[in-house]
Amino acid sequence: MTEDSSQELALTSDMETGLEEFDQTDMVIPRLQILHKEGRFRDTLTNEEFAPLERAILLGLVKQRILWHSTVDDGDLPMCKSPDHNTGYPNVDEDTKKDKRFPWDLSGFKQSDFSGDQPQLPCEGCKLKEWETHPDGKKPYCAEVYQLPLMYAPNEDSDLWIPAIVAFSKTGLKTLRNYLSGFQRRQAPLFSAVTRVELELNKRGGNIFSTPKFTKVDDIPQADWREHSLNFSSMKAFLQRPPREFEDEGGPAPSDNTARPPEQPSQQAAPPPEEPASTETPPAEDKNKLPF
Fold it and tell me: Whole-prediction pTM value?
């Protein structure tokens, strides 16, 4: 046993640690930011970078939507965000530049039909989630985001599991959907397996981006499922809270140049055009307080 580990044991067993009044509601849960050009994850709480996630327990999926202006400048906030994929909270803040607020004229909604300082819009009736509504004419203006609460081990031999949240969008959604489909077919909870999460580098049209690869590496005993289910419920409730203000959202993920509209039901459907390279900025750090 090292001197440091002996001291740690002495502090936790024989003395007050100074953390007696720090409980789970005070914990800060990091985001695992994807560094697309490096093919690595960054822990936004410690700034540690690593790849891959050798052992992760994927707790569940939380679908969201987010609408960014087509030209994102430093300090910009989303024009709208839906934390539950169903209800959108448009940015109507008068301190935001008028052209960076929610585009009522493009959405199909009338601002006069909604009252209160923070309108709530039904995503189902919003035109901006439809294909070809983006100013480039080739994709939805409002993008889907899949938030994935998880627990990960900092190294392959560690017994410590660290909670975190990672977000996937664009081509990251395809591989994630494929992996989750296997659990759905088996009617098995997502947290019934330990998963290895890699980031594979891709290049198209001079644009470098990462796509995730998911591999099941082990089974998780059913005796542990309830704990993981409760953890997911807590994190899901946090992620789906209505936004009180548009802060700490980061920027949109870099374009992967591979977005495609859904195929039309025809016998010989022509392949849709590829999405052009984007100048979107990578996501910034996002530190969130979470009841976990």
Answer: 0.75
